[in-house]
Design goal:
13 helices; 22% strand; alpha+beta; single chain; four-stranded mixed β-sheet
Amino acid sequence: MRRIFALLLLLLVLTGCETSGNAELTDPGWEAYQQQEQQSQEETTQPEETVDYPAAFSLAYHRDHTLDPITCGEGVQQDVAALLFEPLFQLNGSFEPEPELCTGYAWDETGLVCTLTVRQGVLFSDGTTLTASDVAATLRRAAASERYGYRLRQVASITYSNAAGEVVLTLSSPNQGLIALLDIPVVKSGTENQPVPTGTGPYLFVTGSEGDYLQANGDWWRNETLPVSTIPLVHAKDLDTAVHLFSTRQIELLTVDPTGDHTAAAGQVQETDRPTTLMQFIGFNTAEGRLFSSAEARSAFSGGIQREMLADAFLSGHARAAQFPLSPVSPLYPEDLEESYSYDATIAALTAAGQDTGVTQTLTMLVSEEDSFRVSCAQYIAENLSLLDWEITVVALPWEEYLAALEAGEFDLYCGEVKLTADWDLRDLIGTGGSMNYGGYSDPVTDALLLAFASASDRAAGARQLCAHLQDTVPIAPVCFRDYTVLTHTGVVEDMAPTPGSTFYALENWTIHLEP
């Protein structure tokens, strides 16, 4: 259980102090934020600076670490690996799967067996042909890996037929969203233990007399013209080194988490956000006898969260406000069900929930103390919802104590962040007995709708029905989905459109300007 938790529940880590309730029934912070936004919009535009084009489009990598996409580290290794290997399906900017090394798929009548059709005529960079056995070997390794093991947890068996060019996945429970989980890069079977395994991607890895670089793959099955034929690689021992290399123009692109303290980069920088499945949310202790065992109290709390402000002001715009546990960029997100924030409506909801008795209730909101960046988010939520009978105290704990308190149920609220999977399966988060359901929420109707969504061939209808129910029951209060940010130097790259699965999505459409 602890391993699954480490993979999926990247809980929102905050440090903070106790906060007291507001004496006056006002809307603290919102007016000041609006004035700040107006002032920002009225600022004069700075004159454009001269664009300095590089001599080469270089990337960072760690020369002593593997580039196997199943096991290599996050960050620069994953970015380089994305140019060497291709997935079965690629997620576009809306989290929708598009065929890459698979041309299609079919479900049997039980909804438990999915047959993938492997694309024919695809060559690895060494000139050998991609086969169904290569795909099956990669998926088996992925199912046993730390990176992909959780998303493939429902895959009971993987078989293949090279003659038919098919791979068959048998599931332990229905999941019509499976295809969105198969953006897994394929490696040639038998090369996975090499420092640089063999892939089918647009580039191949070359070691030359002057260092390592990527060279355009002449056998690439898509036969598209790439924006550059050669990409020099520069060694970076860690992320701080990579940031320095970017700031000093030794590399031209870097993907970062914009909420980190290490992402400051000097020079003229262009930022392009990349959507993720990282959802920040407020969890409730729903145990009997607790205040938030009441759906009315949970709903009143959720309605009082100023999501747009938190995303824009505290997360610097690198997040997307969300009222439902689906990314708002997904077509499954029921935007028409959203309710606008209203301070008066929050007060009315609190009153209707019986929270206007004049008797103060001190509520504890748990956070981990490891990330100071998010302190302001937790404090702002606590301060703005310390209304009427509520006085919310933020308690920051060391990580292990935080986990222990969550597991023991010693909280009223907690701030959390979870890395969801792109099939939006929420059963472990809000289903009865789920491994991440620390609030103890249990509702048979919710459980049935979660299963129905997973089984539905009409995914949009299933998502809408589930979200409408969650809007009434509020097992958790989603706040926003965070973005990663791709940094490039101003004017160097045009038409970049990074997606949840790839910084280099539709690379053939990029224009990269180099020194004349």
